[in-house]
Design a protein that fits this description.
The complex is a heterodimer. By secondary structure, chain A is mostly helical. Helix content of chain A is about 55%, strand content about 5%. The chains are: A mainly alpha, B mainly alpha. At the A-B interface, helix 1, helix 3, helix 4 and helix 9 of A face helix 2, helix 3, helix 4, helix 6 and helix 7 of B.
Chain lengths: ~625, ~200
């Protein structure tokens, strides 16, 4: 057997980088081959020698240095303005680096950074100067107050490289200075020869930090027309399913073609402003304690109505804060408000932060998470919907982790049949809400962004299972269905068919189920004499999916009731006036959860036209 | 702290938490500084380069993809930095070390011969000399072999990862490493054997 080329294998063997078969083959060979044994011995000695090279310990301040190096560098404004007085460029300094050499030494006293800032200023001054010479026309005058015409053609500008001209604002862009052309000796005369290189690099970097450089192949300067400022709201990516909420034109279209009107949108805005005013300081909405906030935004109303300071309608049941907060946040998100844009950014941020605080370690969102509260699947699902919609509207990573954990919790308690079972909740209802949360997450994360949430495992698969199971149960053949329907309705919970609509994927089969459900719903359109908020909301969602004549009828009834019954007349002497924008908490569920609940649902019903992209 | 590098990096990437980044710095500062140190034998410059590498990780955090191990990613950045540094250094005059260990082979063998002939030198000094020999020998290797050798001395890097860092096949890593070790052996083991023989 030839030992040619065995060396590599032996070395790999020493490093433990050979497979088990190779090892045994090699060992058999070694037992027989004298030359390879020697080779191995020598290799081992050499490797051992290289292992003896000492390691250095990082200096004590290394981590701190890294930290300070990556923190954003801010240029204090006063430093720039202080320098402004010093930088003067005489007209005869034509050449760029002439100017550089002449002025830098004077500024070098306060160190490299100052030199860097000053250099940038010099650059800009020269930029303007040469611009004028190039164009051969009247000088482009910087905005008043920013220039100080001095003797001859010497003048000073601020660091801001935007100049207003009759043809619109222009921005001066400069190219980076090649580091080898920086004359280090002129800046720091006593720098040692071997340090020059480092100084040069640092100087170049500080110049770049001061003003990000844009790529250009034109010599020193380039005129770029200032782009119109993008409105704050459009700066973040919004998933298609939620775009109707945010894009003005689409929203108007959706309202008009979906059956809404100016009145419905006004009602939404009134309702939202009441909700916003009754948020607690810690970010939640409380079923009973919301009344203590009445004074905050209603000072004027209080003056007019001295005897009527507080809104009535406290909840009968305490401790539904999580549900109410989620509903109120959903109502706000439904109209396209996010925590990143005015006017309700603070409100939403506070509310979302409160919600995230309620999350337990296992991902469940429970009221009083620290006090060992019991999980309500409905509450958890509503809260997850809030997080999902927030993520879909803003892609803000701050709430992403909470969303993932919430979804993982849902998956962890899903049964193999696809149902969610829960004490005190009908499995059907529990499943419906859990899958509604999953559906919202799926809508919020189309395409690739779902992968980052662990999409297939936590969203797609559970949703598919759940939808299949719901579909089985919603089939009208069984008596189960009818029994559920009446029982659940009495308690103010959604009927299974409606709940299915919240979760259903769009498919012909699903449409069949929803058609069936719409026939049931059509028997009783919204009527203030038989109020039931959950029924109205779920019915509205279902009917809108089904569309057609049934939806038009339902919508008419809905609008009649909600527009008529919202407190919106601001007439002195009327008792309802401080409750402007609300709906009275009527019905079994309304009484139980109070005015925040009824108002949030009222708003959610009227936002139906644009909350989701309409069915194709 | 049971979290893996990738988890930390993804958290830093997605949430921008500085703690995750600092944890990564704490974990990798030592191997990274030593990587540069073994190429340069100057601790201050090694730390500067390591700092720059971490800054690049910070600045280009969005470019990281979870396909690669974080260590591989970091050392690839480090290696690119090293290449940049070498290019920059070529323009500038080379610094010449005045310490006893020189850059070329004749110098080092002479040093060793002296050490072998003077038995009064203490054991500690002896060891330091030997280390100096090893350093010299490594320095005299061709650049590519030197890089492979130093990466292989970096904790936790397997052949496959070295291959990924240098963007070369694993077989090339093996052969380069073997070539490097063989050269070292020729220079160190044979010399020291000769030294012992003389004694």
């Amino acid at each position: 057997m030839s030992c040619e080329g065995k060396g590599e294998e032996l070395l790999a063997y020493l490093h433990g980088e050979v497979t088990a078969e190779e090892t045994s083959a090699l060992e058999t060979h070694l037992a027989r081959c004298e030359a390879c044994q020697t080779e191995l011995r020598e290799l081992r000695v050499t490797v051992a020698l290289t292992d003896r090279i000492p390691e250095v310990e990082p200096s004590a301040g290394f981590a701190a240095r890294v930290r300070s190096a990556v923190e954003p560098i801010e240029v204090p404004a006063e430093r720039l303005t202080a320098r402004r007085q010093e930088v003067r460029i005489p007209a005869e300094s034509r050449s760029f680096f002439d100017g550089w050499r002449r002025w830098i030494p004077r500024l070098s006293g306060s160190g490299l950074r100052a030199a860097g800032y000053a250099a940038a200023l010099v650059l800009l001054v020269l930029a303007v100067n040469s611009l004028m010479q190039q164009k051969g026309r009247r000088p482009v005058r910087p905005a008043p107050g920013k220039t100080r015409p001095a003797k001859g053609r010497t003048f000073v500008i601020t660091a801001k490289p935007i100049i207003r001209t009759p043809g619109g604002p222009i921005r001066l862009v400069r190219r980076p200075i090649p580091p080898e052309s920086i004359d280090v000796e002129a800046i720091l005369p006593d720098v040692k020869a071997f340090e020059k290189e480092d100084v040069r690099v640092k100087l170049k970097e500080s110049l770049e930090v001061l003003e990000p450089v844009e790529a250009t192949d034109v010599e020193e300067l380039l005129l770029v027309r200032e782009l119109p400022k993008i409105p704050e709201r459009k700066r973040y990516y919004v998933v298609p399913a939620f775009q109707n909420r945010l894009i003005r034109k689409r929203k108007i279209y959706a309202v008009w073609h979906g059956g809404g009107s100016t009145q419905t949108q006004r009602a939404v805005i009134r309702g939202l402003s009441w909700l916003v005013a009754h948020q607690d300081r810690d970010g939640k909405w409380s079923g009973q304690a919301f009344r203590k906030n009445c004074w905050r935004h209603y000072d004027r109303l209080r003056e007019n109505h001295p005897g009527n300071r507080r809104c009535g309608g406290a909840a009968d049941v305490p401790g539904a804060d999580l549900r109410l907060t989620s509903l109120a946040l959903l109502a706000l998100l439904g109209n396209g408000h996010t925590h990143l844009a005015a006017p309700y950014d603070t409100v939403l941020r506070r509310g979302l932060d409160w919600l995230v605080l309620q999350q337990r370690d296992d991902g469940a969102i429970v009221e009083g998470a620290s006090a060992g509260g019991e999980v309500s699947l409905l509450d958890h699902s509503l809260a997850s919907m809030v997080l999902a919609e927030t993520y879909g509207l803003t892609h803000d990573q701050r709430y992403r982790r909470a969303l993932i954990r919430g979804l993982e919790y849902l998956r962890s308690i899903q049964k193999a049949t696809g149902e969610w079972a829960h004490p005190r909740t009908e499995p059907l209802v529990a499943s419906a809400w859990a899958s509604a949360a999953l559906r919202a997450s799926a809508l919020a994360t189309p395409g690739i962004s779902r992968q980052t949430l662990g999409g297939a495992e936590v969203i797609d698969e559970p949703l598919r299972l759940a939808a299949a199971r719901l579909q089985q149960q919603v089939q009208p053949s069984g008596s189960l269905f009818a029994r559920y329907r009446e029982e659940i309705r009495k308690r103010g919970e959604p009927s299974p068919g409606s709940a299915y609509a919240l979760a259903a994927p769009r498919s012909p089969r699903a449409d069949g189920v929803l058609q069936m459900e719409s026939r049931y719903l059509a028997r009783e359109t919204p009527d203030w004499k038989r109020p039931n908020w959950m029924y109205w909301y779920c019915g509205t969602v279902t009917m809108q999916h089904v569309g057609g004549l049934a939806w038009r009828r339902w919508n008419r009834g809905l609008k009649d009731v909600l527009l008529r019954e919202q407190k919106h007349v601001l007439a002195p002497g009327r008792r309802g006036s401080v409750r402007l924008g609300t709906w009275d908490p009527v019905g079994p569920d309304g009484k139980k959860y109070g005015r925040v609940y009824s108002t949030a649902f009222g708003v959610l019903c009227l936002e139906i036209y644009y909350r989701h992209a309409p069915k194709k | 702290m049971g979290r893996t590098d990738i988890e930390l990096m993804l958290e830093f990437q997605q949430d921008g938490t500085p703690e995750a980044f600092e944890a990564l710095v704490a974990r990798y500062q030592r191997p990274l500084i030593n990587f540069f140190f073994r190429l340069l034998w100057r601790k201050d410059v090694a730390e500067d380069l390591a700092q720059e590498a971490f800054c690049r990780v910070f600045r280009h955090r969005l470019a990281y993809e979870a396909r690669a191990k974080f260590s591989t990613y970091l050392f690839r950045i480090a290696r690119n930095l090293w290449i940049d540094y070498c290019r920059r250094r070529q323009a500038a005059p080379r610094t010449v070390s005045l310490s006893p260990r020189g850059g070329d082979g004749s110098h080092s063998s002479g040093g060793l011969a002296v050490a072998a002939r003077t038995p009064s030198v203490t054991e500690r000094l002896d060891r330091q000399e030997l280390i100096g020999q090893v350093q010299d020998a490594i320095e005299s290797l061709p650049d590519d072999q030197q890089m492979v050798l130093i990466l292989s001395k970096t904790k936790g890097l397997k052949y496959a990862e070295i291959a990924e860092v240098l963007e070369i096949p694993v077989g090339t890593v093996r052969s380069r490493l073997h070539a490097a070790i063989s050269k070292l052996r020729d220079r160190l083991v044979s010399h020291s054997a000769a030294g012992r023989g003389e004694e």
